[in-house]
TrEMBL record:
<feature type="transmembrane region" description="Helical">
    <location>
        <begin position="241"/>
        <end position="268"/>
    </location>
</feature>
<feature type="transmembrane region" description="Helical">
    <location>
        <begin position="118"/>
        <end position="136"/>
    </location>
</feature>
<keyword id="KW-1133">Transmembrane helix</keyword>
<keyword id="KW-0812">Transmembrane</keyword>
<feature type="transmembrane region" description="Helical">
    <location>
        <begin position="185"/>
        <end position="205"/>
    </location>
</feature>
<feature type="transmembrane region" description="Helical">
    <location>
        <begin position="311"/>
        <end position="331"/>
    </location>
</feature>
<protein>
    <submittedName>
        <fullName>FUSC family protein</fullName>
    </submittedName>
</protein>
<feature type="domain" description="Integral membrane bound transporter">
    <location>
        <begin position="198"/>
        <end position="324"/>
    </location>
</feature>
<feature type="transmembrane region" description="Helical">
    <location>
        <begin position="211"/>
        <end position="229"/>
    </location>
</feature>
<dbReference type="GO" id="GO:0016020">
    <property type="term" value="C:membrane"/>
</dbReference>
<feature type="transmembrane region" description="Helical">
    <location>
        <begin position="92"/>
        <end position="111"/>
    </location>
</feature>
<feature type="transmembrane region" description="Helical">
    <location>
        <begin position="65"/>
        <end position="86"/>
    </location>
</feature>
<feature type="transmembrane region" description="Helical">
    <location>
        <begin position="20"/>
        <end position="38"/>
    </location>
</feature>
<feature type="transmembrane region" description="Helical">
    <location>
        <begin position="280"/>
        <end position="299"/>
    </location>
</feature>
<dbReference type="Pfam" id="PF13515">
    <property type="entry name" value="FUSC_2"/>
</dbReference>
<feature type="transmembrane region" description="Helical">
    <location>
        <begin position="142"/>
        <end position="164"/>
    </location>
</feature>
<keyword id="KW-0472">Membrane</keyword>
Length: 343
């Protein structure tokens, strides 16, 4: 996939409504069942498991099965690590360090397994957000829910691959991906480890209590290929998030019941997935309220505190990620990476 030529250009459409609908369906079924059962405390595990659907969105049946099951296994492992950290009440420093190590490991695994989207953003998010839960559900309920939702999303993915091939054979086949060298993989791991560790520490020092948002924001620009695309991704992350903060403030101005929040989350998930591969900055307009409403659904937080923390932590993380990108460019001016652009 070619990188966007400038900050405002859109990539051509690839029938995104089909995978977007499938992903939104996975999230909707997951949230709906848990709310019917009165288990909003498990929605965070269901939501991270539903990220399985985001992977391999344009791949044919066999590679999609391989890549989605691989992504599901990694997401479940990350939630397991996060649950263990929360169970032993690990300090913030330990969580940040583990998150940085997971970032390096997840980025390399994603590259080796040729997962798309590339990078470790979702893996970092799963570990650190679960580790920060104020109330921890029982292990079997938490991970059992995540496993069932992940399996459901894989089944959805298989049906989506079959339907897409039937509608327009060959249209949604992913392009071939170049294997990365050991040196490139080490550089990828080093960038993730450094950026996520520094962003987490600075986020913790900010005092807002949501350092994982800084860590996730730092991972976004270093997940894509080419220094120009990385700089563009950092700018999109900041500008899109700040715009999304405005939308979140508007949405939270209207008191909504739990079901109302769930329906908004499903709608925002669909909208985000229809544009994320076309323009990352526009997608962040929907991803930001989506993430914040998901936090509100599981554990209510004062809205102003929530949006302020999101804005500050995102700027911190994106600036750290951008700084690491620029330093990397200065150290390797002739870099010819085979990393593939994240969706």
């Amino acid at each position: 996939m070619k990188a966007q030529g400038n900050l405002t250009a859109y990539l051509p459409s690839r029938r995104e409504c089909f995978p977007a609908g499938r992903i939104a369906l996975g999230v909707g079924v997951s949230l709906g069942l848990l709310l019917l059962l009165g288990r909003a405390d498990l929605t965070i595990f269901a939501s991270f498991a539903a990220f399985t659907s985001i992977y391999a969105r344009h791949e044919p049946l066999r590679p999609r099965l391989l890549h989605q099951t691989s992504a599901a296994a990694l997401l479940l492992l990350c939630m397991l690590v996060g649950w263990a950290l929360a169970f032993v009440q690990a300090g913030a420093g330990v969580v940040i360090l583990v998150g940085a190590v997971v970032a390096a490991f997840g980025a390399v695994m994603a590259a080796r397994l040729e997962l798309r989207p590339a990078g470790a953003l979702f893996f970092i998010f799963a570990v650190t957000a679960v580790a920060g839960l104020p109330r921890l559900p029982p292990f079997t309920e938490a991970l059992g829910t995540a496993l069932l939702i992940a399996l459901f999303c894989v089944v959805l993915g298989m049906s989506g691959a079959t339907f897409s091939g039937w509608v327009r054979p060959g249209h949604l086949v992913a392009p071939p991906v170049s294997q990365q060298t050991r040196r490139e993989l080490l550089g990828l791991a080093a960038r993730h480890l450094t950026a996520i560790l520094i962003a987490g520490l600075l986020g913790q020092l900010s005092g807002f209590g949501h350092s994982y948002w800084a860590m996730v924001a730092a991972a976004a620009p270093i997940a894509v290929s080419g220094h120009g695309a990385r700089i563009q991704r950092a700018v999109h992350r900041i500008v899109g998030t700040l715009g999304g903060i405005g939308l979140t403030v508007f949405l939270l101005a209207f008191p909504l019941p739990t079901w109302g929040l769930a329906l908004l989350i499903i709608l925002l998930q669909f909208l985000a997935e229809t544009v994320v591969v076309r323009h990352y900055g526009v997608a962040m307009l929907f991803v930001t309220p989506l993430a914040l409403l998901m936090v509100q659904l599981g554990h209510w937080t004062a809205p102003w505190e929530l949006v302020t923390a999101r804005a500050v932590e995102t700027v911190i993380g994106a600036v750290v990620g951008l700084t690491v990108v620029l330093i990397s460019a200065a150290m390797e001016p002739a870099e010819t990476s085979h990393e593939t652009r994240a969706e």
